[in-house]
Structures are given as C-alpha cells and as structure tokens.
Amino acid sequence: MRETAQLSQLIGDIYDASLDASLWPKVLEGIARYVPGSLVNLFSQNAIRPEAKAFYTYGIKQEYLKLYFEKYIHLNPMFPATLFFEVGRIITEDDIMPRSEFVASRFFQEWVKPQGLLDHSMAAILEKTGTSVAAIALCPGKRDGPLNEQSLRRMGLIVPHIRRAVTIGNVIDLHKVEAATLADVLDGISAGMYLVDAELRILRANPAGAALLEQPSIIRSSEGRLSVTDPQADRLLRDILSTLTRGDATASVQGAAVPILAGNNERYVAHLLPLTSGARRKANATYSAVAAVFVRKAALEMPHPLEAMTNTFKLTPAEARVLMMVVQIGGVSEVAPALGISEATVKTHLQRIFTKTQTTRQADLVKIVAGYMSPLC
User: Fold this and answer.
1) Fold observed for domain 2-171
2) pTM across the whole model
3) 3-state SS of the chain?
C-alpha cells in the first residue's frame, strides 16, 4: 500500500509538470526516491555532434555537468548505441556492452565513479527524431545498491507517464497553467483540444479543435460525444480514458499517444492528460472534465542518420560505437582507452567495418559518415 500511494503521488506530480515545467525538479527527486537512484537526468543529446542539453537534473553537481558537456559527452559509451532501441524501452549498460568494458572506459573511471555512482544505470528514450534523442537516465549510488528487478519494474511503471507528460508539455509549449488562465492557454495552442467527461462528452473545444470537428474524416462529435473515425484508435482512446477516471495510480501505460489514420489517409495523433487530481484539478475547476484530449497532425518520423547508416551496412552496436569514436577522436590508440577495450579489439571491429562498408581506410569511413549527416544535424 505504501508503494501504491507513492506511485500515485509520483504519477500525479508527473502530469502536473506537463502544465507547469517548474515542477520537474520535484518530479526527478520523487523518481530518485521511488526507484531508487542518486542521479536522475532529463536531457536531450545529439548522437553525432558533441551537443547535449540537460533540461532538469537531480543529484548531479554543476561541475560534473559542465565536465560532461566539455569533455565526456563524446566518450559516453551509451551513445550512439542508445539510438538503436525503441522509444520507451528501459535500457541498461548490459544491453549495449559487456559490463567489464563499461567499467574500464574513461567515461566510467573519470566521470561516473568519482561521483559515487555505481556501474549500474538505466535510461529510456522519450522521443527520437532525425537529429537527436530526448531521454531520462537514472544512476544508483552506493546507498541505493545495484539495479534489480524491483528498480527496473518501477522505472517501467513511470516511463510511459513521463513520455506522455513530456509530449503534452511540448504541445502546449510548457506554459505554466493557473486556474484562471487554463482556457486562454488551451485556446491559444495549435493542436485541437477537447475537455471531456468520463463519457467523452465534449465540455469545451478550443478553436483548433472546433476546426477539426468540421473535418469528419478525422474526428467528430456524435450527440456531443467525441469519437474518432479510425475504429482502432477510437477503441484505444476509450480504453485509456476509462483508466484515467480511476485516478493517476491506474492511469494507462499504453504508450504516450493514440495514432489515428484519417479517412483521407493522413495521420494524426491524440494525447490524453488526466485532470482528476493535483494541480490539474485546480486548473480545471471551471469544468467537470476528467481529461484533456489533444489532437494534432503526426510529425514525419525519420530515422536518425546514424541509425539509417547502421541499418544500411548492418553494423552491430559495438561496431557503430567504434566507428563514431574513430570519426570523433582519432585512431586505434586513442579509441581503445576511451572505450576501455584493447587495441586488438578495436582493430577487429574496424576490420569488420571496412568489410561491411567496402572501404580500406579510416578516411573513407569519415566520408561515409559525413555523407549520411545533414548539415542541420
């Protein structure tokens, strides 16, 4: 019961943060206590260029954050391999490389270990685009102990809600929503928005939402109830809404979005934000809505250039990691200590890369990578 109450409070705080970005530090602290962990980071990173942004952090000193951006960003062995996993999956070092290699890497020895963190961590990609990934990472310290089935299970319970909250926060541009301004904020967003009750009756629609209702090939109002023309999406929308009415603790973890195939073969996506507890209930005081439904045209999903290149040449994650290290920091003698592996192992990976890419020189590999990278990446 104690864990259930803790989870319910944490999920409520996560959804509150979708309307008020200033609450994310509190959310990360709650995640650290629940999983548990000593460091939690909500961030984005370009897996090609040494560029990253820590949106919100817990448990990391600014000096180490600065060191990561200045020195260790391109030595992190979790990248670029993280790109090859599906959005929402919980990833640990064991999914990417032997733990002995991770412990021997400069990244662990010089950045992770000095912070008192263990050689156990996990991350989940929240969003993946053609230029970068947004993710959440958690690292346990000595007081937390290594990752185990319970900590992985707990992370798995909250990641779908974090994905949904981050996505909705992006849709409404992370405005801070006060009760008096909720309608104004939602009226001003470009996505269609509907405040609905437990029966999907539309209590309020913003201008963009009203415009979508005039296009019956996408979404419509039947006797005042919201429905989707795509039968599968309509069933999923109703299934998720039914769990939202039972409170945050039982809120659906079926992904962050409901994909909709419109009658004209265009693709849209719907996101649901529960409004039944916490700051969201205060912001919803004027209405008796249980959820806000956001509907917008789906963005074109393109694979990251590195992911496309890896698929084309059928590189393994280890080979892709060596390839990017060679491009970024130099030859075999520089790459081996950075990755914590022997020069012989690096040479073996390189030979396989040469064979798969039909090249013979490192300069040729640089040209291949450059050919896949857009100037906008």
Assistant:
1) Beta-Lactamase (3.30.450)
2) 0.69
3) CHHHHHHHHHHHHHHHHCCCHHHHHHHHHHHHHHCCCCEEEEEEEECCCCEEEEEEEECCCHHHHHHHHHHHHHHCCCCCHHHHCCCCCEEEHHHCCCHHHHHHCHHHHHHHHHHCECCCCEEEEEEECCCCEEEEEEECECCCCCCCHHHHHHHHHHHHHHHHHHHHHHHCCCCCCCHHHHHHHHHCCCCEEEEECCCCEEEEECHHHHHHHCCCCCEEEECCEEEECCHHHHHHHHHHHHHHCCCHHHCCCCCCCEEEECCCCCEEEEEEEECCCHHHHHHCCCCCCCEEEEEEECCCCCCCHHHHHHHHHCCCHHHHHHHHHHHHHCCHHHHHHHHCCCHHHHHHHHHHHHHHHCCCCHHHHHHHHHHHCCCCC
